[in-house]
Design brief:
- 4 copies of one chain form a homotetramer.
- The radius of gyration of chain A is 26 Å and the shape is elongated.
- The two termini of chain A are 29 Å apart.
- Helix content of chain A is 72%, strand content 1%.
- Chain A has 469 residues and is mainly alpha-helical.
- Chain A is built from 14 helices and 2 strands.
- In chain A, helix 2 packs antiparallel against helix 3.
- In chain A, strands 1-2 form a two-stranded antiparallel sheet.
- The interface between C and D is medium-sized, with 20 and 23 residues.
């Protein structure tokens, strides 16, 4: 289950090996032997050595030109998340101006901006769509299964509104993030800077592609189904009548309405996937900041460092904690919606898995979608738990501080790391740690066992029954 | 879910902006720049500056006469809670004399007081009513649903007795509260003092109005129902026969009995709502005391303060903790009854929501009542969790103490904040924190899923069936 | 629920008021005013004053001769528990010699002692009885309900064996207890010394009487039942055939066998009740030792005490913790059996409460037994949780140590109190705290809700069905 | 439940008594009295005494030649685990060279080694077998019960792959373990060194024998069953047709296939048992390292030791923690598979226990297998929890450090022990502590209660039904 973050790490290591010049390798050897010597030597002599080493290192990046993208990146979260937000803007979320700009000070939010208007219009359109769904559901017998469209559209609507609110805070948040980042110990190599951005891009890319694949499969299975239950002669009309039954429950068929419905569906599906990915991306960003600090601590692990060093690191750690807190306040509603949504949908889909699948297209779509859902939930859980894990990792280096340099500052730092619970949360009702994964899994199994008792095999070929893409 | 406390905070900020004179704003700027300078300057110079600032500030309140009520308030819990207790006294609870007095030393409890007598008489009357309910329930088959009247009247009775006991302790409690309050760092503006009282009034007002609305709706639906199931020709008699079936199960109809039953019903409903509101109000009071301390700490955040300053704050924090403990001892039985009641009633009502509603009046009443119940439970949970949240917030300011002024007193303060669990509790069996909300929600879902299996659709138009307003 | 320990406290206070001579009252006043002065005065002057006070106090006990028993008691656990163990010995448990002796050094265990022989013989007899029960149960269809006799006799057997093992350790345990007790700050009044022993006696007395009452009721209901289902002409034979059906399942009726069965039943019932009471009594003993320490700390709360004072208290606290640990190791299997037994029996009895009672005698017996069971479980839980509660209370006094006398020893003491989990446990699988009560209650409700689904109304007048007293 | 580790301890003590020469006993007395004196004496004098004692002790082992094996052992984990790994290698797991070598530096892993090839071939063979099982299961209706073969073969396959990966890390792990071990305070007697190895051997031996007995019983019951449902005339063929139904579901009967199936079955069964034993053995190793440290601390309990002593112990403790962490990273997937497997199989077997057993052979096999399963699960849980328990035990000795030698190093050591959670884990999703046992038991009971509702009595004499050995 730790596979996702592990795979990345391996990729990174592979690349590291390839990129590292022989000069760096030699430096590492020097560093390594120095580390061993340090236990006998006094602290002062070693410091001078480190300074020289630093100066040498600062010359290194100019040599490693293997990767163009790596060269451009300055390792900031603002830059890494730029393209992700651009995609979101295209899908009517997060209407902030200047997301691809070099500096977070270029970010701005305005109600009169074209993106904001698009976003507001789409929210209005979603409200109408949600209303239609609600109307249809309330006019049919309600069950655990039948409220799926309301849960789906309702949470999409909620996320849209939260995202709009978040967009207004985004410029300030990014400025704060920038301040914290600037203050952190910098990576000496381009590779270090490039890592976070790369992970974020990969997560976004893989997530989008899988989500796209799922949508295509859903369309195929819907077309398959619609052609079987011929309501009209027109196959396209049949398809739209099926997939937007909440619209044609109140209105008669018309092409503009059908297109609007399709548009709504595509956008909703994207936003529904995007909220999970957004939580993942913010988690990757926060975890990577803790890792940046930990990497620095690892470099000086077991050495006699001055109290000033520890004081600086403590304040940097504190800053990341505050950053974590601010981000959590800003996105915790999204996190909450994302988790409860996944919990509900996994329960529903697992329950549906007891049905006999009417066709191969259905079966392929259904199992792909179920595995994608579980995988996505697991990925969100593990990535967001990694913030907590990384924040606790600092303790490992603090435990190795030698007796001689154990000072009040290290003590204070240690106590702060021990007593603080640094983690993303769902409205502070639950904290995202690895233990949560187990309790969520346990909850799903328990609910599932109880729900199975109410399950009756629905005949999916029953054409009167509502079908939801 | 954090909406309730958030809304308030927003309102407060809005008002702050309006009220603040330009003089205050300038002072803020001075303060802000001073804060930045302080990192370079020595502690002593800055202290003098703060003194001058203090003197200036003390002149300010005389200028802000925008709000009359704000001017009167001295920010004490005794004053803020006065009218709330007056209402309670009208409903035969908490018979303490002098609740609207200026000073808590005027409070007194006496067994010979008219309020106490009224209270005792009402308790006796409630015992009789409870006995009648018990008799009726035991003479019918018992189910999860049918014991509702006993749970309702039993818990009202329990709360009445606890409130009487609490009334005897109230004068001492308020005196202790007064001592703690006097010692706390005072708000410099009338607005700061006015906040807590205002929040308490608003909670009381909204709670009372919703409770009143619910009762009206319940009456309409009962009248509707009674007129359908004509037992006698008199519609009023029908109504009373329905809503007080536990009385007319043993006695034949008579107007005085009917009026007594109605009186009992109205009072019980109020007390049932009041217990939740009382827990909320005490929580608001305690949380606001922690906030008062935190506001002072925020003003000096990151500055070099003397050990005496921290020692004072630590003792003040300790005092609020002791206050919290005393209040918890006094009201924890009410808290316990309130929580278990809400848990039970939500389960019952959710189960009833599966019934088909016989009329629009019923449906409106039922859903209004269900939403009110859930909302009230959430409000109690969140307001009471805010005591814990505010008490932990102190840590945030202690984390920012600069290295230079890190002294044993700050260390001790920090350790005490970390290791103490400051929260209201239900008889110490559970502590009221935000995590509790999730576990309560989980419990409700689990029980509901199991209970659904025993559910049979009750025909509410079945006139023989007991109907409970 | 906190009522049990509270009632005692009240009684104690009442007695205190009555017993206290006017001299003591004056001393209290002196002490009180001195406490307030101490914040201004230097530590040394006050110490002298305390010394004088001590000398005065040491003269006091000679004056209060109001209670003869109080005069005799030396406040040791060995003395307090003596009569309790004597009763146990009569019922073939804990065969230790010298339990009523003045000093724990008189305690001894020997395999050749008459008590030990009786105990071993009874264990052998119980094994046979258990075997018969097992044989009968395995020859009938097994259900959650039908295994009750095995659970009952099996746990009684287990407790008997553990008690025999405990008896061998008892002399050493009591010696260690004596060492810890001698070292603790002594109560100055006979009343203080008398309290623990009195509580233990009362718990034993009330427990025994209720258990006796339950057994009488069980006999009445069994006689009632046996006379209805006449198997033979002899009513006494009928009764024995019913209550010892596991014996007469394999053997034909004979008076000696019937008497042996009756004897087994009476003894088993006592032992089954005794294990709960034993856990309670040990808990009372341990909690009272913590209280003794806390009472001393309260006397000097907020005063400037020397580091030596704190060092002594810390070591005393440590000693009680070690004592707690040793006792827990010795009795944790009994605790575990007691808790799981109560959990199982409450589930079974609650389930049986759904049956319609065949006669008034049955109903009275059944509800008395159910309430006794729940009350006893609650009492065990709360008394054993009080050990944990008292051990945490020490923190309250440590929080009030003034700044001036805050020294490394106080710090160490505080940290030890915070980080240690002092509580009785069930084989370390769970710790007995107040939170456990809630989770046990939750578990019972959940299991009950699920078990109800398998419930079929058993006709208790069905004479073929096994009936278990 | 604590019986398993307790039994060992007793055995050890018994042996100790026998082996100990009178010289050692006298030394103990000297040591004991010295310990008491130490509170009055100065630290320096005592140290000299201890030195002399040390020198005396170092002469002791030469005298105790009672046990040959004890003489050989050097107390290293590498040596203790050698034969265990040899057995594993025979069953195609952990293909490391040099496991029985004297020094861990002789360990090596190579892809070209014969063991590795055998292992890879067996994995390939298992994949085929797993595929066949999967094919058979998917071609029948799926239920909680019917997926047992997939779960079984799937987890065996997973463990095989993890073990291969672990084999590659093993040389480095053992080298690290060796470094940590060398640095620890050494046992002065051969007996101390011999303990861990002996425990590991006994666990392995008992585990293997029980597993072998279970397999024999399973064969007998399968032969019994096969002879009843005669498919063909050949009884051996019948047996193989039964036990390898997943093979003969796709292929017709042939002797090589049957032998391959049998081979697969025997090996899978062994590996399935081995994974639990492996977790136990690693736990015993880690716990014994903590015990080694604790034994040293106990020797100097309550004495005035120098800060250097504490600093050394702290670093040793830290090293074992790091070792624990590394081992956990390496085997946590095996732990996870082992626990979830046991959880699933206990649920399935308990559910099957409701079936009526068709023959005595079946009943004996079934109950033996169920008890073995529960016992094994309990043993894994308790042995792995002992790592956590031993790591917390250190605290006990730190609490007894006298006031005079309380120094920053002891403080730091104490804080580290308190705040670190040292325990094996299942992928960090859960930590293996004693509390886990209770929650696992609770989960099993809950699931069981729910699952019973779906249970239908399967007729095991139904010859068409799949039977799984």
């Amino acid at each position: 289950m730790k596979i996702l973050p592990k795979l990345e790490r391996k990729l990174r290591r592979l690349r590291k090996k390839v990129t590292r010049t022989s000069l760096v390798r030699k430096l590492d050897l020097v560093h390594e032997s120095a580390r061993k010597k340090a236990f006998q030597e006094s602290c002062e002599t070693y410091k001078n050595q480190i300074k020289t080493e630093y100066e040498l290192r600062n010359k290194v990046p100019k040599l490693s030109k293997s990767n163009k993208e790596a060269f451009i990146s300055d390792g900031s979260f603002h830059q890494a998340v730029g393209r992700v937000l651009l995609v979101a803007e295209f899908f009517a979320m997060m209407p902030v101006k200047g997301v691809t700009g070099k500096h977070p000070s270029n970010l701005s939010f305005s109600w009169r901006n074209i993106r904001t208007c698009f976003c507001v219009v789409f929210i209005a359109s979603s409200v109408v769509n949600f209303g239609l769904s609600l109307f249809k559901v309330l006019n049919n017998p309600i069950s655990f299964n039948s409220i799926k469209p309301i849960i789906f559209r309702g949470s999409v609507l909620l996320v849209l509104i939260v995202a709009l609110k978040l967009a207004r805070q985004w410029p300030q948040l990014m400025m704060f993030w920038h301040t914290v980042e600037k203050d952190l110990p910098q990576y000496k190599t381009q590779l270090g800077k490039w890592k976070m951005g790369h992970t974020i891009s990969m997560v976004m890319l893989v997530g989008m592609m899988l989500s796209f694949a799922e949508h295509i499969l859903s369309m195929i299975s819907a077309i398959n189904y619609a052609s079987f239950c011929n309501r009209t002669a027109d196959p396209i009309q049949n398809y739209f009548l099926r997939t937007n039954d909440e619209i044609f429950f109140v209105a008669s068929y018309s092409t503009p309405l059908a297109l609007w419905g399709k548009f709504q569906n595509v956008y909703s599906t994207f936003i529904w996937n995007y909220m999970d990915m957004f939580v993942m991306i913010v988690s990757i960003g926060l975890a990577s900041k803790f890792r940046q600090l930990n990497d620095d601590l690892r470099n000086f692990k077991g050495l006699n460092m001055s109290p000033t060093y520890w004081s600086e690191r403590r304040i940097q750690y504190r800053n990341i904690c505050i950053l974590c807190d601010k981000m959590d306040d800003a996105i915790s509603l999204i996190t909450m919606v994302s988790f409860s949504n996944n919990l509900y949908f996994i329960c529903v889909q697992l329950l549906r898995s007891l049905n006999t699948m009417p066709s191969v297209a259905h079966a392929v779509y259904f199992y792909f979608s179920l595995i994608f859902l579980i995988g996505r939930t697991l990925a969100v859980s593990l990535y967001s738990a990694s913030v907590h894990d990384e924040s606790r990792l600092t303790l490992r280096y603090l435990r190795c501080v030698p007796k001689e340099s154990w000072c009040p500052e290290v003590k204070r730092f240690t106590e702060e790391v021990i007593s603080d619970q640094v983690a993303l949360s769902g409205m502070k009702f639950f904290h995202l740690t690895r233990k949560l994964v187990l309790s969520v899994a346990g909850t799903i199994v328990t609910y599932e066992l109880v729900l199975i008792q109410f399950h009756e095999d629905n005949d999916l070929w029953d054409c009167d029954q509502s079908y939801y893409s």
